[in-house]
Design a protein that fits this description.
It is built from 6 helices and 2 strands, in the order αααββααα. It has helices spanning 10-22, 27-35, 42-55, 75-90, 95-104, 110-127; strands at residues 58-63, 66-71.
Amino acid sequence: MSDKKYQPTESELEILQVLWANEPCTVRFIFEQLSTEKDSGYTTVLVQLQRMTKKGLVSRYKEGKTHYYQAIPKEEEIQENLFKRLVKTAYKGSAMDLALHALGQAATSEEELAAIQKWLDQKKNEQK
C-alpha cells in the first residue's frame, strides 16, 4: 500500500467502483454504468475523469482513437482510508463505537452473530 492518502469525493468513488469492477474502461462505458443508477452526462463523466487523472486517482492510455482509464489506488486502500477517516471524525477514534453503531442499525441474523463470535474468538486466541 502506498503512503498516499486518497480521499475521493462521492462522485469520484462511484467512478472508481466502475473501474475496479471492469477496468480498463472507456468514458462511454463508465457513463453508461453510472447512468443506470443516476442521471449523469457524458461530458460530466469525461471532465471528472480528467480531474481524477490530474489528482492521481486514475491513469489514462490511448489505443487508436480510444482512451482507456484505470484506477491507480486499489479498492482496499480507499476503503481503509475512508474507514480511518470515518472512525476519526465521526466516532472520535473508536472503531468499537462504529462497529456497535453499525450492528445496532438493523436486525442482526443468527448467522451474522455467529460470524462475529467466531471473529472475536479468533482475536482472543491470537492474543494468547
